[in-house]
Specification:
The protein is about 40% helix and about 15% strand. Thiamine diphosphate binds next to strand 2 and strand 4.
């Protein structure tokens, strides 16, 4: 290993060495604690420290780093007090997640570190979003994100690199190729010689760096970072290194051939550098001992502090409160003038007004720029707001949702348009695991609205007709809004955008051009979580939402003899339980109508809530009416049979006569 470099003074070398030593010594201590059962799991970075330290040193303190599970050096190099790290690993309240998530699964805005989620890949797209924010704000900054070579097999890697290249985002994609992903050797992970070779396929510059050589890592990454700050673009960097211990401590290294282990033992980044410093007479053995004992006393002192900290006292109320960021809607003068709008116009106008209100807000989606989106909702937006803010995306749902997360980390609101709500499956992972959980985990907001054009009755078959709200209503941390009228759509969309929490905003396609009403022309908002009593009655409560609201109203028009209340939920999470209970207690009979197929839909939970809290008031069994338990079919005859719409009248009459 060649550690000579003309740009480095002796002081620089010593500084690099001390930094390199710290994670090594902390780890050695942690391995002891692990054996004593004092910490839960440990992902060792022994042998790979030069990468985390070198990259972190090459960046400015205000530039974001997104580390992985072996990157202790990122945390130590950013100067996080050790007791806070120890508290985090021991699940104490002084850790970064108040005991809610383990090991390196946390971020901190204070130190500009955005920690991973277990799923690995989404980190890469989040880095895209952070870098996009720098680019939009004209800031000269790079963002570094880490992944292992195993993680590069995930679709997120491909999507994130592709987006970064198409948008020329200043991201350093740092791949630590340590030979194994758990027990899987690189030969079973990918079929090319170097990961760096993939850069070409993305139209991206790439480099191979000797990852165990701190001098090479630091000087090369510093040079690349300096260039990227001036000339923003993504760079793929493959660091060749090796994982010297098991994937985590329990999993061992039996599957690693001995000669490979021996080869890499000789490449140890700390020992080799130490040897070089001694041979160059930059440092003496006494100085090395002193550095080591200083670090060891720091570790011991901070451990004592962590150990003195009491264990967490569980507080259910606090846990529930932290799932969402608390907020109140902005006050606006109530507009007076209403004009007739179709559902689609209300959404389009609402989006436009929020784009005016939030000057940095970005909309991202497929074909939404010049083309105006497949439903023409953002038609004309490019002319008004420019292409920086109205962004066509490649077909990369997952990394775009992750990028929206990255924008939120940089305090920029964003809206992601799913072309059809059905396609959200391709972006499900970051929604369910990143956006939904991040506030609870470490208090970071995910200020993203995901627009979901959904629903059947349009003859579009199983992949363009689903109403998939139930996939999200069961995930704490998400809000789910589902308006049925233009006025609600406009007001709730404004509220969803004001809300710093992630909101899934369902827009039923069949309503876009069929439903019209007078809507406030100027900006206004409607609080999320409040149902709307559309029709008063005495005998039956009809609970529904979305297009089904119109199905119910149509039937009730035909059946004037039935005195029914119609409760339009508007928001499914949070759910207006109070409004549901009030109406059911008044009428004593309830029918819940949902467009989705029956099992596991929101109707089932509403039914459970009513039986639990209103049982004594009921005069009849609760009735759920939903679509057939098949995928939604294409042919009109089959779709009519599938949808709950035609079943509703009969079931309503039966319940009325009960
Ligand atoms: C989506 C997903 N699949 C599988 C896993 C389980 N898993 C966690 S880490 C890991 C190996 C990662 O290998 P690599 O990216 O090379 O990183 P390394 O551990 O070698 O640093 C696996 C399979 C996971 N966490 N997430
Ligand atoms: Mg690996």
């Amino acid at each position: 290993m060649d550690f000579k470099h003309q740009s480095l003074s002796i002081e620089n070398h010593i500084d690099l060495y001390r930094s390199l030593l710290k994670p090594r010594l902390i780890e050695e201590k942690m391995l002891i604690l692990l054996r004593q059962g004092k910490i839960s799991k440990w992902f060792s970075g022994i042998g790979q420290e030069a990468i985390a330290i070198g990259v972190t040193k090459a960046l400015n303190k205000e530039e974001y780093i997104l580390p992985m599970h072996r990157n202790l050096g990122v945390f130590t190099e950013r100067g996080i007090p050790l007791y806070r790290l120890f508290s985090q690993w021991q699940g104490k309240s002084n850790g970064f997640t108040k005991g809610r998530d383990r090991s390196f699964h946390f971020g901190t805005q204070e130190y500009k570190i955005i920690g991973m989620i277990s799923h690995l890949g989404p980190q890469l797209g989040v880095a895209d979003g952070i870098a996009l924010a720098h680019k939009l704000k004209n800031e000269k900054a790079v963002t570094a994100v880490f992944t292992g070579e195993g993680g590069t097999s995930e679709g997120d890697f491909h999507e994130a690199l592709n987006i970064a290249s198409v948008w020329q985002l200043p991201v350093l994609f740092c791949v630590e190729n340590n030979g194994y992903g758990l027990s899987t050797p690189v030969s079973e992970q990918f079929n090319c010689e170097h990961i760096a070779d993939k850069g070409k396929g993305y139209g991206m510059e790439s480099h191979i760096i000797e990852g165990n050589n701190i001098v090479e890592v630091f000087t090369k990454v510093k040079e690349i970072a300096e260039e990227v700050r001036e000339n923003p673009r993504p760079v793929l960097i493959e660091f060749k290194t090796f994982r010297m211990r098991g994937h985590e401590e329990a999993s061992g290294t039996k599957y690693v051939p001995e000669e490979l282990m021996h080869y890499w033992e000789k490449q140890d980044p700390v020992e080799n550098y130490e040897q070089f410093l001694l041979e160059s007479e930059f440092i003496t053995r006494d100085e090395i001992s002193k550095f080591k004992s200083d670090i060891k006393s720091e570790i011991d002192e901070h451990l004592k502090r962590t150990n003195k900290e009491p264990s967490i006292e569980p507080d259910e109320k606090l846990e529930l409160e932290d799932v969402y960021q608390q907020f109140t809607l902005d006050e606006h003068p109530k507009p007076s003038r209403k004009i007739e709008m179709r559902f689609i116009d209300a959404i389009s106008k609402g989006l436009e007004q929020s784009m005016e209100k939030y000057k940095t807000m970005v909309i991202m989606g497929q074909d939404i720029a010049e083309y105006g989106g497949v439903f023409k909702i953002t038609d004309g937006f490019v002319e008004k707001f420019g292409k920086d803010r109205v962004r066509n995306t490649p077909i990369c749902e997952s990394a775009i949702v992750s990028a929206a997360m990255g924008l939120s980390i940089q305090d920029i609101k964003s809206i992601v348009e799913m072309q059809f709500s059905d396609f959200v499956t391709s972006g499900f992972n970051p929604i369910a695991n990143y956006l939904a959980k991040i506030h609870y985990r470490w208090g970071q907001k995910a200020d993203v609205v995901i627009r979901m054009p959904c629903g059947g009755g349009v003859g579009a078959g199983p992949f363009h007709s689903q109403t998939n709200e139930a996939w999200f209503t069961k995930i704490p941390g998400l809000k789910v809004v589902y308006p049925s009228s233009p006025q609600d759509a406009k007001g709730l969309l404004a509220a969803a955008i004001e809300d710093p929490n992630p909101v899934l905003f369902f827009e039923h396609k069949a309503l876009y051009r069929t439903i019209r009403e007078d809507v406030y022309e100027d900006y206004f908002s409607i609080e999320i979580g409040k149902a709307n009593l559309l029709k008063k009655g005495n005998d039956i409560t009809v609970i529904t939402f979305g297009a089904a609201v119109h199905w119910a109203l149509e039937v009730l028009e035909r059946c004037p003899e039935i005195s029914a209340e119609v409760l339009d939920l508007r928001s499914l999470s949070p759910l207006d339980e109070a409004a549901i209970f009030t109406s059911v207690k008044k009428t004593g009979k309830v029918i819940i109508l949902q467009e989705d197929s029956l099992f596991g839909g929101i109707a089932s939970d509403i039914s459970a809530l009513i039986s639990e809290y209103c049982f004594e008031y009921l005069d009849a069994p609760i009735k759920r009416v939903a679509s057939l338990s098949t995928p939604i079919p294409f042919a009109k005859e089959l779709e009519d049979q599938y949808l709950a719409k035609l079943k509703f009248e009969n079931e309503l009459k039966k319940l009325n006569n009960y």
